[in-house]
Each structure stands twice: as C-alpha cells, then as structure tokens.
Amino acid sequence: MSCKALEITKTQDNSLRRVGFELEFSGLTLEQTTDAVQSALGGEAQETTVAERRVRNEQLGDFNIELDWDFLKRQAKKSADEDDPGEWLKHLGEAARLLVPIEVVCPPIPNDRIESLAPMIEALRKAGAVGTEDSLIAAYGLHINTEAPSLAAEVLHRYLRAFGLLQWWLVDAHQINISRKISPYIDLYPEDYLVRLLNQDEVDIDDIFDDYLTYNASRNRALDLLPLLAELDEDRVRKAIDDPKIKARPAFHYRLPDCHIERSDWSYCEGWNTWWLVEKLAQDEKKLNQLGDAFLNRELPIIGVNRNDWTEYLDQWLKDQEWG
Q: In its keyword annotation, does this UniProt entry include Ligase (predicted)?
C-alpha cells in the first residue's frame, strides 16, 4: 500500500509540510527496538536514559524510542541529570519492559518522504513488535502529526469542520479495536461543538481558542488541537489545561488509528490515507459547506443527528466523490 500525496504540500512560507508518526506497541525491549530502527534506517544509536533511546539519522532526524511510562521517564531523566542512574531504577526499568509499551516517536519529515519509514515498520514487525490487539488496557495506537498548511483561523476552522463531519465515519473506516473505543484517549468532538462550528460564517483566532477550550479541554481527542493551539499561544492553553504532556507544534495531532504492526498486511499508510480524506474535504470549501448543511438539516430537537443514518449517508457521499 502506498501513502496518498497531499494536495497542499507546502506551508504559507513555501516550505514542505512535514508529518511525524508515533507508534505504540509491545513485544520488544528498548534495545531490540533501537536495533530494528537503526538496521532499517541507519544512523547513530544513543542511550539517553534507562527508559529512552535515540537513533539519530542525518537525513530524517532523531527517532526517539521510549518506554511509555511517565513516572519511569521522569525518574530516569532526574537520575541522568544527577549522573547516578541507581540500581533501583535499573531494576524498575527491567521490570517495566515486561509490562509497559514501547513508543517510537518519529521526527517530522517532509510529506514527500513519508514512505521512507516503510523499512522501519517491516524491521520492527520481523523483530516481534505487536500492536493494538496485544493489549486490552494499553490501547496502542498510531498517531499522525501533520503540519498545518497555515495557522490562520479560517484554515483551522475548515479542518475542524471537516474532521467533525467525518469523525463518526472515521471510527468505522479505521475499524477501531474495542479496547481503544472504550478508552478515554480518542474521544470524539461533542456534537454541540460540531453544530457550533457549522453555524459559524466567519471566525477569528479568539473564536477558535474559546470554543475549542470550552468543548475540548483535554488531550484525549481523536483529533487533538492543543499542540497546535499551544504553538500559537502556549500560556492561554496552559491556563485552561495544565498538562505537561501538551507539546507545542504547528501540527494536527490525529490519534484515531490502531497500530497493527504485527500484521503483514498492515501499513501505516492505512491510517495516513484515511486522514487524507480530512485533508481533501478541508481544501474544498464548496463541498465542506454542502456537507455541513446536510448534517444540520438532519438535526432533531433533543436527540440531535442520528449517528447510523449520518455514517450511511456519508459513506455513499464519499463514494460519489470518487476520492478513493
């Protein structure tokens, strides 16, 4: 499977838009994961703490490999700063490897080089990485961080409307694992928020901030806009949500796809190609408005829009567009 190309490939300053992927899985140690990434992509491997490794690739950037446990990472960093890892921390790290998932955080790479990550995925699979279906509690996923073409309010408004209109359909299209559906990590936007977005003719950046932080004061959204908002005004975001995990970057943080890295027929391009539909709709103002009107016309007092009816309508509508 190949990854679809963006239609809007550059930002407003004429640089190539970048995309960063994050993969969560188990089945491997930090060392095994580091070896797989390095063997597939080359570069220099470095141990940063007992809970973290890095593979530095001159062409693509730094691949950070972490045990996905905040407590261990904080203690490991503190000990590294003090130049004293401590035996207890080493033992804790060893135990964590049996229970805690691994996360590979890829650097943001130019959107025309997305497929250069394919050898890494294959190497991790062959080494024994196991994704979403391996855990009923960890809810392993594939996160996609796509740089916005612009941080202007009208552009962000188009993306928010596009995702909001597609979100119910996207859950079905991705065939999200039950462990992730019931987890709090990929909550969808409230319907009231989507209705508000669709009823706005013009917005400024204050509207974007005020509405998003009112309805979505959490990182746990299938499309998390907090990193992008923090890029614009970090103090404003942190006053509303004091979460150290929010890291400012000019990108949409798409958290919805599963990570089925253990399956030979799975590709990270599956998740990307589904996100691509959000991109496609966001760039077509006429169709975006038409679809928004169709959604609002289905809204009923108290009960809102019937989810099944909307996803069926949207499924046919997307087929009619021949965007596949």
A: yes
pLDDT per residue over 192-235, tens digit each?
Answer: 999 999 999 999 999 999 999 999 999 999 999 999 999 999 99
**CA 324 to chain CA centroid, nearest Å:** 22
Q: What residue ranges do the domains of the chain occupy?
A: 148-249+266-324
Closest alpha carbon to 179 in 132, 129, 131? 132
Render 159-191 in DSSP notation, one character per residue: HHHHHHHHHHHHHHHHT--HHHHSSSTTBPPPH
Residue-wise pLDDT for 133-184, tens only, equals: 755 555 789 999 999 999 999 999 999 999 999 999 999 998 887 777 777 7
Q: Is 42 left (phi over 0), alpha (psi -120 to 50) or beta?
A: left
Q: Which residues of 167-177 are buried (b: 16+ CB within 10 A; e: fewer)?
A: bbbbbebbebb
Per-residue tokens: 53:
């490794």
* Tokens linked to 185: 């990590």
Q: Cα(4)–Cα(9) distance, rounded to whole angstroms?
A: 12
Average pLDDT over residues 70-81: 49
Q: Are 28 and 303 within 8 A, CB to CB?
A: no
pTM for this entry: 0.91
DSSP label at 304? B
> CB within 8 A of 315, min separation 6: which ones?
169
Residues 25, 261 contacting (CB under 8 angstroms): yes
